[in-house]
Amino acid sequence: MPQRISARGKKNSSIVPSPKIFSLTSQLKCHKLLTFQNIHKSVSKEHQVRAKKHLGQHFLTDESIAEKIANSLSYKGYKHLLEIGPGMGVLTKYLLKKDIITHVIEIDRESVEYLKNNYLNLADRIIEKDFLKYNLTEVFEEQPFAIIGNFPYNISSQILFKTLEMRHQIPEFSGMFQKEVALRICSKEGSKVYGILSVLTQAFYDAEYLFTVPPSVFNPPPKVDSGVLLLTRKENFKLPCDEKLFFRVVKTGFQQRRKTLRNSLNSFDLSDNLKSNLIFDKRPEQLSVQQFIALTQLIEKDH
Predict the structure, then answer these.
(1) pLDDT class for 259, splitting at 50, 70, 90?
(2) Contact indicator for 268, 252 with CB cutoff of 8 Å
(3) How far apart are CA 63 and CA 50, in angstroms?
(4) Binding-site positions for S-adenosyl-L-methionine
């Protein structure tokens, strides 16, 4: 018979707690740890901005690439810089280290709040507007400024067109586009991707493709590679022709890029004498920027 021990008797140091007690203790410790981890994780998430598909947001997460983009500009000839779509400020952080007055324009309310809370010295230079609709002269008046940014794919071409409209104020431009768009902008005549963006941009800016960025450095990752390019305005950026007519000739010509200019520019009601010029035997993708300027001058004289 096992010896019975009175409640008042001596404690038996050899008594081992039940496995159930161990199990319960472990569960409690584990629960506390998991609870702490969950709280920590939720706090981290609260300080992040949720990427919104309808805004085309893909937040850059690679610091070295952000710094590389920030270093791509010369920061000469202007005192102001505008970053389009800063998101959580991965690029902004490096821009604020430059000897330049940095402004940011952001349409996403959540991103704006994040920037205000995390970049206090930027708070009065955050423009909560749609870049495509906002009148930038309200901020910069007639002062020159540069543009930089990791642009949403769905509006990147429109951003470029607005930049071209304001070219008299924008001497430099550095931005991230979908890779194929960036390559198209920088391509030369004869290339399969040479088109409207190529000609109109290179008429006023020297375009340089800088580097490719893989999808893995974004959150969420896009389905394609991105490309960063640099535009430096030409010293003489005023064309020796009617600029509105130049835009129209380029856009009309490329609407039917496989046809000769004699056919694609038929809507201009050109004289037979002009259409006999050998330049009209060419397709638009075969003309350099200078040849498009010369073509515009010919059409201008014909009218």
Answers:
(1) very high
(2) yes
(3) 19
(4) 58, 60, 85, 106, 130, 150
Encode pLDDT of 186-228 as tens digits: 999 999 999 999 999 999 999 999 999 999 999 889 899 999 9
CA pair distance 154, 55, nearest whole angstrom = 8
- Binding region: 58, 60, 85, 106, 130, 150
Nearest to 151 by CA among 112, 121, 171, 181: 181
Is residue 177's pLDDT more than 80?
yes
Q: Is the pLDDT of residue 74 over 50?
A: yes
Question: Running DSSP on this structure, what letter comes out for residue 55?
Answer: G
Q: Which residues pair with 228 in a beta bridge?
A: 176, 211
- Give the pLDDT confidence of 92-145 residue by residue, as tens digits: 999 999 999 999 999 888 999 999 999 999 989 999 999 999 999 999 999 999
> What are 51's two structure tokens?
């990427």
Question: 89 and 119 in contact (C-beta within 8 Å)?
Answer: yes
The answer to whether 284 and 261 are in contact (CB under 8 A) is yes
Within a 13 Å sphere around the CA of 295, how many CA atoms are in the beta-carbon half?
30
Question: Is the model's pLDDT at 297 over the cut of 60?
Answer: yes
* pLDDT at residue 42, as a whole number: 30
Measured distance CA(143)–CA(165) in Å, rounded: 15
Angle, nearest 10°, between helix axes 243-255 and 289-302? 110
User: Torsions phi, psi of 93, nearest 5?
Assistant: -55, -40
Phi, psi of 218, deg, nearest 5: -120, 155
54-80 burial by CB neighbour count: b if 16+ within 10 A, else e? ebebbbbeeeebbbbbbebbeeeebeb
As given in the structure block, the two tokens for residue 107 are 């349409």
**Cα–Cα distance for residue pair 198/286, rounded to 1 Å:** 12
